[in-house]
Design a protein that fits this description.
The complex is a heterodimer of chains A (about 400) and B (about 130). Chain A is an alpha+beta fold and about 400 residues long. Chain A has eight helices and 21 strands. By secondary structure, chain B is α+β, with helices and mostly antiparallel strands. Classes of the chains: A alpha+beta (about 400), B alpha+beta (about 130).
Chain lengths: ~400, ~130
Amino acid sequence: MRAGAGRLRTVRGRGILPLPMADDLRPTPLSAWHAARGARMVPFAGFSMPVQYERGIQEEVRTVRGDCGLFDLCHMGRLILTGGDHIAAADHVLSQNVAKIPEGAIRYALICTPEGTVVDDVLVYREGPKIHVVINASGRGVDGPWFEKHAERFDVAIEDASDRQAMIALQGPRSPEVLRQVCDTDLAQLKYYRFTRGTLLRSVGAIVSRTGYTGEDGFELFFPITETVRVWEALVAAGGTPCGLGARDVCRTEAGMPLYGHEINREITPLEAGLDFGMDLEKDFVGADALRAQRDAGIPRRLVGLRVEGKRVPREGCALLHGGAPTGFVTSGTFSPTLDRPIAMGLVKSEHAREGVALEADLRGRAVAATVEGLPFYSRKRKKQAPGG
Amino acid sequence: MSRPKNAKYSESHEWAVLEGDTLTLGVTDFAVEALGDIVFIDLPDAGKELDKGDTACEIESVKAVGEVYSPVAGVVEAVNSGLGDDPAPLASDPFGAGWLVKIKVTDRSGLDGLMDLAAYESHLENAAQG
């Protein structure tokens, strides 16, 4: 048996799962905790991370959709920008209009190459004299130097706080109830994509952010990394259930959210990926000229959802055809426990990127009918109906 | 999980038992564990001709797909069709109720490359130690 096309790259082309751990993997403060409680650990962006606990990915997805899942996100990166010109510097490097972000608010943004393709996707937090930028694990060691290089002419200090700040997420409808037992913040007053300063366990100063990557209500917490295990165990005691990156990836795919390295990378633009909400093309930033040119000339490819017949799952890299001719490829595909069917996203030629267009997916040598479907597959506000429903 | 002594094993975690001309093919408990939540098994039709190394069936889990290779050339004689509706027996009893495919063998030379149980278990230990 050869296992292939796993999102977490545990398996592709290697024949067996799990891969032996490379010796140079970094642990998070919780890696030993996860492993001691039966989590299956995998290499992810240089870190030893839990892909799932013994309950399995499907149960963990159900926890997020119906209860409260906890995620160790200490592997992700956190940059802090300060200095006289830090807003101008951020506005030069980031696609979002940073100057317009209100105090205490959070916006999604992209770091683009001069060609308009994507270096990383990030969340930007405006807090007094600071801008916090939460970056992907794969962006650690990349985004910081990128800022240094492209914001050289600005008066800005860029601190990589990844190694001194922990990051933990609570995701799911019961997240407020769980966090309330550990945190003094009035969570009812904290709106979606806003953050505040709070105190955990009566003594740990934290940023409490109403954000996430699952399509559910929830929070992301940032606090001193020395307190990671204590805070995590308190959240578990308060009713949160530890979940792995497998469930997180399934949830984000159900919610139609892009993952760096899949829906976006240095060969795909945010316009192609449908991330217009993360850009202000009226301002100048690295990549803006190229993106305006692409917008005006016509965007050649678009990210779409795919609905396939049957239960075979279109996995990343599968070719997509229209009338037998190539039109694109699958960027992410998984089985959705929430919808009880396969779901996939893919980049296709723009003329085929309309709901209802009939495509074929080449699933390991056998063509399967795939119909273009609107994204997201799952939305907590708008429980998605069947087509036409 | 007790692995049968009368089976032969592949490095890619198939097991095979030959009785007369009929080879019963499955995957090991290690493969099942590695795949995680199994959601669907795509079985071939009876009568399908397989070359040695062809994909005999596919096992879909939430996060990955496992292709099960035939170690021999032959013709699919029977499939464990119940697994198409409910893959649970594969996870709970991979060496028994979770068998996948029976193949009428036309060229059994591929069996020579398979391992006995002791060799397979040391293969697993070596894999675990990286």
